[in-house]
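Troubleshooting: if your tokenizer reports a length mismatch, compare against these two reference records.
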Amino acid sequence: MNLITINEPVWNGGKPYFSIRDDRVRDKNIFVRCSHLSRQGNATYPNTFYVDGDALRQTKTYTERWGTAYRVFPKELPTLLFYVTIAWSKDGEDFEETYVRSCYDDIKETVGEFFDKFPMRKPYVECCASESSDGKYKVDLTESIKHDMRK
């Protein structure tokens, strides 16, 4: 997983873009997060974006003052959604709840809070996945979340 955090987009007169250094594009699957906050303290781009690294390497590069970079426009990028299903059994009956979040860190926080709030249920992660809004990217994150929750 190649996660790239952008502090602020290039505003470009109302057509903002993210400038990504070419040496940071290492994988086929690239996830882009923007940490910029509005004046009100809200995330300008709350979702994680998906970029196909192979396709990005085929696009034009631009020379910035700090090096060579690709430009990606957030309006053209699919967003990622993260899903987790937490299950438990009670009196021989199975129960589950599914949560949808905009980033992996929020999924970890949700699972942690559920486990802390309902330890008597002996909950476990049944499945966890991520999917892009255009359907081109899907990945099973069940083992990753289980590993991260053991830490």
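Reference record two:
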Amino acid sequence: MPDVIKSGSSGNTAEVDARGRLSTFAVSVPDSVQKTIDGFAYILTMPIVNLTTDNLSFVNFIKNNDTVPWTFIAILTKIGPSTDGGVNDLLQVVRINATEGTLITAGTPYAASNLNLAVATPLPATLLSGDEGSTVLNGFPTTDSLIVETPQRTFFEGTPISFPPGSSFSIGFIPPVGNTSMDVQISVSITRDIS
């Protein structure tokens, strides 16, 4: 008869058969799912911002004040229709590690939500929402993206992006030429990289 290791409630988890071979039973769970179960996954959703010109405005600033890196899992950009801006493209602008600007000095704080609703662990972060004309300075430019101006949600889920402690991430928009009113909102899904 083989030796069996039992989990205590759900049956066998491993056994050694009569020939000395070890068999194990396991379940594979994606890392992001396990981080959610453990209370280390968050959604960062800024308030809706109304842009009233066609000038560049930075609307979202996220800074990692944690002792561990984060991983950006996905970014969701929500865009309402433009009044007087027609159906021209708008530009989404991203800057890394900005250190100055009105978004950083006068932005409105908002809170992160833990994706495990039973966990109340706060995210060690600076989360700021800007408004029309908010600026960031001294940031490193990254990929800027043209977005077709129609009411939509643009979901980016690509290669996860590592976000080390102390780093920051800012998103801004240049609305279509002639814009007088356009609602925008950003949601970012992140995990804390705790082993």
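Descriptive notes for reference record two:
- The chain has two helices and 17 strands.
- Residues 1-38 form one domain.
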